[in-house]
Specification:
about 450 residues; mainly alpha; Growth Hormone, Chain: A; about 75% helix; H+-coupled_symporters; MFS_dom
């Protein structure tokens, strides 16, 4: 048990720093948007920075492919070490990027390169950490253990928001807009250096060591597109089940602060505090929901999320628009995040449980990154587009529609809780539409 917890701790700590660097871009965007673009409409400047934020997502499929391949061929430890190295480099670039007044659009170009590196890193980080945490957990505890991926992701965002709150109370608005926004990226780069050391000393998972030693496909076959294409159904399933969850997650995390500030009219400090408190409760809910899935299965939680998101998104967003103070805004935000917990707490292990060991990292990474590029990374930009077009309520219907599509998938997919992660073969899985047979029972041939 001690070794399991050590693996979970090291994997989670690195994930926290990765997502701190990823989310502080969104959290501090309102302060540095004017630094890289000429004076003009505030919403237009936010759309420019949101566009660069979205570009990072479109790099994620490349990162998912490259780093997923590394994870399946060289090990989960190698992939996790490489991702944090790339993230550290991107944080340094943003911290030193020149402003528009100094270098014109050159600063925006540096920002773009940094976001591309972040996208490359996070594209591999999600799958590497999802695979690592799922494989490293004790049997019957995978839902609980893998839920720490979103605990660490949320912890990274909380650290970013907490730092923002501290800076808001110690620096003037002018100082934050001028140079204070660079501080979190310096902190992120330093944190990544610490995690780099931790990940170099982390232990490999037993499931990967098994595929290295016995029963798996040759090394040159692992982590290849050819191997992944043997599992096309599972890959498409990852894209479909991610669609609604990633849109809802980014709506109520990265976009929420801007929505409360720009649309609901709350002061920036109040909007930030609402997000911080809501995310703190959200992080605490993840292990509880993950443990529940170990008892009742993954599908009930996914279905609960999709039903809630489909029917509650429009009224929640409408009421948030008129939330005039801290407590109503916090209550509505918590309601939304409780619903989203049905997805976030278990999506890592569900995806990892769909694939055999030799292609598990790539199988999670590439389809998930594609879904995030199409839906998660564009969520904030789509929201601002609706706002700029004078049809802001249309975004709520968009989020609800994405959740409805995922609901259909959740209702038709198989239960994955009892999947045997020690299987290492690369052929098509038996029982793709039903529950897995016990590990000791040979799988019947499939046509």
């Amino acid at each position: 048990m001690g070794q399991h917890w050590k693996k979970i701790w090291v994997g989670s700590a690195g994930n926290m720093v990765e997502w701190f660097d990823w989310f502080v871009y969104a959290s501090f965007a309102t302060y540095f948007a004017g630094a890289f673009f000429p004076a003009g409409n505030d919403t237009a400047k936010l759309m420019n920075t949101a566009g660069i934020f979205a570009v990072g997502f479109f790099m994620r499929p490349v990162g998912g492919w490259l780093l997923g391949r590394v994870g399946d061929r060289r090990g989960r430890k190698a992939a996790l070490t490489l991702t944090v190295t790339l993230m550290s480099a991107s944080a340094v670039l943003i911290a030193v990027a020149p402003t528009y007044a100094v270098a014109g659009y050159g600063g925006a170009a540096v920002l773009l390169v940094a976001r591309l590196l972040q996208g490359l890193s996070v594209g591999g980080e999600y799958a590497a950490s999802a695979t690592y945490l799922t494989e490293a957990s004790a049997p019957g505890r995978r839902g609980f253990a893998s839920s720490f991926q979103y605990v660490s992701m949320t912890a990274g965002q909380l650290l970013g928001l907490g730092l923002l709150i501290v800076l808001q109370h110690t620096l003037t608005g002018a100082e934050l807009h001028s140079w204070g926004w660079r501080i979190p990226f310096v902190v992120g780069a330093l944190g990544a250096a610490v995690v780099f050391y931790l990940r170099r000393t982390m232990l490999e998972t037993e499931a990967y060591e098994a595929v290295e030693g016995d029963g798996g496909a040759p090394a040159e076959e692992r982590g290849t597109i050819r191997a992944l294409l043997r599992h096309k159904r599972e890959a498409l399933l990852v894209i479909a089940l991610t669609m609604g969850g990633t849109v809802a997650y980014y709506t109520y995390t990265t976009y929420l602060t801007k929505y409360l500030s720009n649309t609901a009219g709350l002061p920036k400090q109040t909007a930030t505090l609402v997000s911080f408190c809501a995310l703190l409760v959200f992080a605490c809910l993840q292990p509880l929901a993950g443990a529940l899935s170990d008892r009742i299965g993954r599908r009930p939680l996914l279905i609960t999320f999709a039903v809630g998101s489909t029917f509650l998104t429009v009224p929640i967003m409408a009421m948030l628009r008129h939330a005039g103070s801290f407590w109503p805004a916090l209550g509505l935000s918590l309601l939304a995040l409780v619903v989203v917990t049905g997805y976030t707490s278990i999506n890592a292990c569900v995806k990892a449980e769909l694939f055999p060991t030799g292609v598990r990292s790539l199988g999670v990474a590439l389809p998930y990154a594609i879904a995030n590029a199409l839906f998660g990374g564009t969520a904030e930009y789509v929201a601002l587009w609706f706002k700029n077009a004078g049809m802001e309520s249309g975004f709520s219907w968009y989020v609800a529609g994405c959740a409805a599509v995922s609901l259909v998938v959740y209702l038709s997919m198989r239960e994955t809780r009892d999947t045997d992660l020690t299987r290492v073969g690369e052929g098509p899985r038996a029982g793709a539409t039903g529950t897995d047979a016990p590990a000791a029972t040979p799988a019947a041939p499939t046509s």
